[in-house]
Amino acid sequence: MLVKVFGAAVQGIHATLITIEVNVGRGIRFMLVGLPDASVKESHERIVSAIEVNGYKFPRQQVVVNMSPADIRKEGSAYDLPLAIGVLGASGVIQSDKFNDYLIMGELSLDGTILPIKGVLPIAVMAKENGFKGFILPSENAMEAAVVGDLEVYGVKNIREVIEFFNDKRKLQRTQVDIYREFMGNQSDFEFDFADVKGQENVKRALEVAAAGGHNIIMVGPPGSGKSMMAKRLPSILPPFSIQEALETTKIHSVAGKMGRDVSLMSCRPFRSPHHTISDVAMVGGGTFPQPGEISLAHNGVLFLDELPEFNRSVLEVLRQPLEDRIITISRAKFSIEYPAGFMLVAAMNPCPCGYYNHPDKECVCPPGAVQKYLNKISGPLLDRIDIQIEIVPVPFEKISDKTPAERSSKIRKRVIDARKIQEERFKNAEDIYSNAQMTSKQLHKFVSIDEAGRKLLKTAMEKLGLSARAYDRILKVSRTIADLEQSEHINTSHLAEAISYRNLDREMWVR
User: Fold this and answer.
1) Of 51, 60, 75, 154, which has the fewest Cβ atoms less than 10 A away?
2) What is the CATH number of the domain that holds 236?
3) What pLDDT score was predicted for residue 300?
4) Does pTM top 0.90 for this prediction?
């Protein structure tokens, strides 16, 4: 008897429908074809054990399974459940008349327990697009899949529940999620707040500008000056997710297996902080079994690189293209996958190897040329792509001991949101442009105009600091954001002057 069961294969952050054809006939062999990998082939032993432990019999006949389309590689253990249901349906143990209505995925343990899988959200989206009535999957993934409306999601814990459901002996409990209540209710839950930061008003201002325009930022300062502390608080002032951004980000984390159990939708922007020993592949993604890298996991959020010069130079150089294009293409001999990579880069570093160059109290003990050699670990093209470069000095005792509460993140966030609303209106007719940092050269000429005084100021800065054409564009974008924060339609010299002041690493004092 031949039956068809439906599953899915995840490629990048999208899913493809997989038809599992099972035919039980005369013979004694078990054959699995359709380009399965080793983990899919090993499913035979798990399926036999799960079926027999739950009181059913695996057919003692020839079982032929084809996973179509056969040119797509099938990877992972998530096919265990649909394969088992297909075998039981083909052998007549369960009724197969409802198979066409449901997409089934799940990993089996030897006792029939259904274990969680990766990539549930893209699969659920694909199931809805292909007209399936429902999606049967592990109970721990049900909340995530239920985000997709108009799709009946059934979370199950044991294969027996699925068998009895298809035999009309059990009704499964549908999982439903109030997306807006969960999404809106968690958008202001932050562990860290800028109210905890004493002093550093100029750095807070730079971070506010960065958040308002989506600009990349690097903070340079001695150990203990608060670089990491402030970077961790940046998500608390970023504008809240839109539903579309939340779905896209959740897809990426779902594929990577980073979603927590019983979580439906990400409501806060991601903050990723990889260690400086990270490899190229871990940063950009890929591998034998393609997975999103850190730059994709930080999509629509923050990628924080602490101790920037300590990262391998090749790791830093692979960031250059994603910073411009906001997407990363992983090309290998047998596949090519695209992952979104629209992240905001936040970097921190010491000014020199000893950490005390330009320190107001402590003397730098680095030998001549050490500062320049240290800075040269970061290439000029990468620094050019960082819009805001700000120097941090240690907080004096008077500020640390001050009992006056600092400005809360919620107040700063309100100003950031107001500035972003201006940008939304500005770029409403532009595709995939949401903030000033993403402006193209054409849009820069259209939306950024400066008067003669501003042009002279910018010319002087360009000549004195030896700035590149890209740095020129960055200054204009940052000045546009500063003007938006002040609700100003025009860019004046004070906006330009502040934007120029955020090019600290271009100054001569950093060379010796």
Assistant:
1) 60
2) 3.40.50.300
3) 93
4) no
